[in-house]
Design goal:
Number of strands: 8
Order of helices and strands: EEHHHHEHEEHEHEHEH
CATH architecture: 3-Layer(aba) Sandwich
Number of domains: 1
Structural class: alpha/beta
Radius of gyration: 18 Å
Amino acid sequence: MAHAGAKWRATSADSWRISVQLVCLDLEGVLVPEIWIEFSKRTGIPELSRTTRDEPDYDTLMKYRLDLLKTHKLGLPDIQKVISDMGPMAGAKDFLDALRRDYQVIILSDTFYEFAMPLMAQLNMPVLFCHKLEVDAAGFVVNYHLRMPNQKMESVRRFRQLQFKVIAAGDSYNDTAMLAEAHAGILFHPPQSVIDAFPQYPVTMSYGELRSEIDKASKKI
């Protein structure tokens, strides 16, 4: 029986070669709402709504966020309370369940495990690569620790070195290096600024369109 994510190709009458295909997806904006935007709405702090769609430099963005949290005396429990009331985007779970039946899937995100795990449970616990927060004894976020710089792009690069054929999808500026490193890159519901800046990638606006583009790419790589 062929494994999920495996595509069998005949190379001669007597032999078969397996080409393993891996789909790498961004998390926020693709499968779940933008956590910081939701937190901004519920706290009434509009400055917290900035994301990588607005500020491509992730380090600059995170320092800006941590400064705001400190100013407003908001800690990890406050953020987790908002996240506990969130769920996946409409249709995301069914899309991901179906995708995992046909492909190997890994979520590559610039979020943090402390934020994401309740949402992962609602998505049937897909594999997630992301980062960690540093929290003091009072529950305030004092720092963040990246797994490594450019971890989305670097992860895809390593997967390719392991002979995976990689299809990647994301919605924002910080996903585009990952898309460029993959054998095929797809934008999902991106802002117009990203569409304009990266016209080489197909644009999808629904899970049906995204699945169609993934399957189309799968036949080409």
